[in-house]
């Protein structure tokens, strides 16, 4: 394994998504496309949040790690699940 140096330190940008989740996005910001294979890297806070509208994940691999609280997840097929503090979820999206 070879060592690699840090190319750039990026400050996240805050925005609101879905029904009020505060998202701190450090990858996936316009003009930062050189971090292949990453598309997005988000830290979000969503106390009493009612979720996100339907959005495609076609071909994406998502990793969710819950720092505090709980996260409910539901996909377009109706499959549901709950993640709690310390839980880690890997999801492979199919057709979207």
Automatic annotation (TrEMBL):
Membrane spanning residue stretches: none
Name any one Pfam family assigned in the record.
Pirin
| Limits of the Pirin N-terminal domain | 31-96
Please, which domain of life does this record's source organism belong to? Eukaryota
What family is this protein classified in?
Belongs to the pirin family.
Q: What is this protein called?
A: Pirin family protein
Per the UniProt entry, what species is this protein from, by scientific name? Candida albicans
């Amino acid at each position: 394994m070879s060592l690699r140096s840090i190319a750039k330190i990026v400050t996240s940008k805050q925005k609101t998504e879905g029904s009020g989740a505060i998202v701190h996005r450090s990858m996936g910001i316009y003009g930062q496309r050189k971090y292949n294979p990453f598309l997005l890297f988000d830290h979000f806070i969503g106390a009493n949040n009612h979720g996100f509208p339907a959005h495609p994940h076609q071909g994406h691999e998502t990793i969710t790690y819950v720092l505090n609280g709980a996260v409910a997840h539901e996909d377009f097929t109706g499959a549901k699940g709950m993640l709690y503090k310390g839980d880690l979820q890997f999801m492979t999206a199919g057709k979207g």
